């Protein structure tokens, strides 16, 4: 991103908080104005007191200097509160924007961007921008005012001495210019390495059981040490560059004072400079040393911030691929009948040329229960993910109640479809909150009814705190089957007209799976149920069965029809019967 665009971005982050920023900068202006005035008082004191010295005169100078210095201290404090506050506000806004933006992005985005990298951008990079907008703005404004207010007065006192003291500055700016590109690149490398390490920690913590099962602790330790070493290398490289340039800047600024002392002394000796003016110039140059030396830190903060702006904007500028059309159709779930149609539906994943779904056609009537069976990788999950538009599908291929699903408002489409994916993810909260996730105000009776439909209620009643039992992270305190049925209860509570179960009962025995399917597809208000499964005895209970092979629906029919015809279903059924016998 070009520097001008980065500055425009910074401006846009600051805009909502311009009042505080302006107050902070205004306070710095006042402080620097007072800072310029105090040496003038001292000059007058030095010149007057050298001719007549009384205690009253001394006090007449000391009291205003003390009062002004105290006022400066208070105003400087206020400027810090305002400007650092702006940094914190921007940090809050950015975190909020990033999180809200991530919620709008489609699942495939998270397949290509690791959680560790996203976390590092939302925390460490946001922190860099906070520092840039708090500390760097403060120190830059301070340096700017220090120079613009001090230099004219210095020039009015003595042009030669002032210009001589400034001779080191071109050298200083050349130094900064030469090193800035290098510093920015090294900073970017550090941020990348931080992301790498966050990614590894995040992945290893999630996959800890796997690491232990395969006894891969040593390999993981080595992989971590390698990444940590790279981060250390990047940090040391950056520190070397910084530690070369910043003391040089500070040192060059101090050379200005030496120039004033050296040339000033000769000017006092030849009578062309009063002692008062000499002292004043010396104080002014000293006053400039600190803001100038701070420039180094300001540059670091700026460069860190620059890299971080790019990294954060990479998230914020990613347009969601799956979004509502301008005139999206709104559908209330209670008005949805649940008819699902596919017409010549084909799909391929980005970066893959082959069709994963190849010219699929079907009609599912409202209230019908359909089982989808087929070989591993035949496209069942892809079909299930397409219906609630978790995948970016082309228009005119899938329809809900005859309406193209790409024309329906996404929230309404997803509100009409309850979906239990293969991975029955549970949050680290109570079972009750997990079940009523989609309806946090649901009463316990509704939660219990949903659990009864999912055949998990008796087991929950046996947990130590029944529905208030806390589920460990990702539900590790529950068995696989319990997790699956809790996830199913969550979908049952929604009471949507369409229910999709993607291999969601694989850890439940065949009889229970069949009973659950009968339970959810029966009743007075029948839902349209799509039941993807490898459990053929449960699948057989459906009204119709779709058999998938290599991205196509190769057979459609009832269990009785399909077992009588030669084809994939009969083969799968025979295999299933052999497995049942061997069991
Ligand atoms: N995100 C993805 N990116 C690229 N290819 C994918 C992605 N997800 C699935 N595939 C591929 O699409 C094909 C169909 O996968 P899908 O998960 O739909 O099959 P499935 O029938 O549900 O399999 P299973 O019975 O194992 O769940 C497979 O070849 C798979 O490798």
From TrEMBL:
Name the UniProt record assigns to this protein: ABC transporter ATP-binding protein
Localization in the cell: Cell membrane
Keyword Cell membrane attached: yes
Gene Ontology MF terms: ABC-type oligopeptide transporter activity; ATP binding; ATP hydrolysis activity
Membrane topology: Multi-pass membrane protein
Keywords of this entry: ATP-binding, Cell membrane, Membrane, Nucleotide-binding, Transmembrane, Transmembrane helix, Transport
Start and end residues of each ABC transmembrane type-1 domain: 22-304
Transmembrane segments: 21-42, 54-75, 132-155, 161-179, 245-265
Pfam families: ABC_membrane, ABC_tran
A GO cellular-component term linked to this record: plasma membrane
Domain ABC transporter, residue spans: 340-575
Organism superkingdom: Bacteria
Species annotation: Dulcicalothrix desertica PCC 7102
